[in-house]
Write a structure and sequence with these properties.
- This protein is mainly α.
- It has a domain of about 70 residues: Serine Threonine Protein Phosphatase 5, Tetratricopeptide repeat, CATH 1.25.40.
- It is built from twelve helices and no strands.
- The longest helix is centred in the middle third of the chain and has 28 residues.
- The radius of gyration is 28 Å and the shape is elongated.
- It starts with a helix and ends with a helix.
Length: about 250
């Protein structure tokens, strides 16, 4: 009985090893890198990103001296980006830049890293490390590639990042107001004006300033600032509603 059990164990173990070996070594049957690259690219274009990555990696392994290797590396990174695996995309784009310094994809790879950082950044009420990374890299990109075809897209990312960081600061202002820490709220509002006074959140900052005036007993200043917001057609509806509610409360 013991020998039978041992034989069965060996048989099962052998099957498992064979399965693992076959899974790791997939043969695609392409005799040249061009055909394999085109096949992998078709998978990428159809949205089959996992399979595309496998074929691109296999191409790099089988044809390491091919001109298609750096292209394969670029599309591996793009596959991760399209599949919303942003950390892997960033790592693969960095690998491309560091190991293929003369590639034609360098400029786009830098842009895609910026894009990946922004896309994986969290909402304004949470940690903004990724937003700050995207903003820093975006500014560096424009300094290095001012005439890039991606320049307008990078500028849009800069605007979105600054808006998000501005909102993060105003969340802090709102928190201090609720805690009745008015001096701290004013400090943050002053910092906001210095750093983000040109963002789309500037109107919300003015509303908070009016609210702070009212809480500090400066009713006339509050009403004047609220009236200015209500008369300005550029003020977004969400801020106008807040301003109107506070205005009529103070004017009553």
């Amino acid at each position: 009985m013991s020998n039978r059990k041992n034989a069965l164990f060996i048989l099962i173990f052998s099957v498992i090893l064979l399965s693992i070996s076959c899974a790791k070594k997939t043969f695609y049957g392409y005799s040249n890198p061009r055909d394999q690259f085109q096949a992998a690219l078709q998978l990428y274009q159809k949205g089959h990103y996992d399979r595309a990555i496998q074929q691109f990696r296999d191409l790099m392994y089988r044809f390491p001296r091919s001109d298609y290797v750096e292209k394969a590396q670029f599309y591996i990174a793009m596959s991760y980006l399209k599949d919303k695996d942003y950390d892997s995309a960033i790592n693969e784009f960095r690998f491309l830049i560091e190991n293929y310094p003369n590639t034609e994809h360098t400029e786009e790879a830098v842009y895609r890293i910026i894009e990946a950082y922004y896309l994986k950044s969290l909402p304004p009420d949470r940690d903004q490390t990724d937003t700050k990374n995207a903003l820093r890299l975006a500014k560096e990109f424009l300094a290095k590639y001012p005439n890039s075809k991606f320049a307008d897209d990078v500028r849009q990312i800069i605007t979105k990042c600054r808006d998000k960081l501005a909102m993060k600061m105003l969340i802090a202002v709102e928190t201090f107001l609720k805690l009745e820490k008015y001096k701290s709220a004013q400090i943050y509002l002053d910092l906001f004006q210095q750093e983000y006074g040109d963002t789309q959140e500037k109107w919300l900052a003015e509303y908070y300033q009016a609210k702070l005036y009212s809480l500090n007993g400066e009713k006339e200043k509050a009403l004047e600032l609220l009236q200015s917001l209500l008369n300005n057609p550029e003020v977004p509806p969400r801020v106008r509603a807040k301003a109107g509610s506070l205005y009529w409360k103070l004017a009553a």
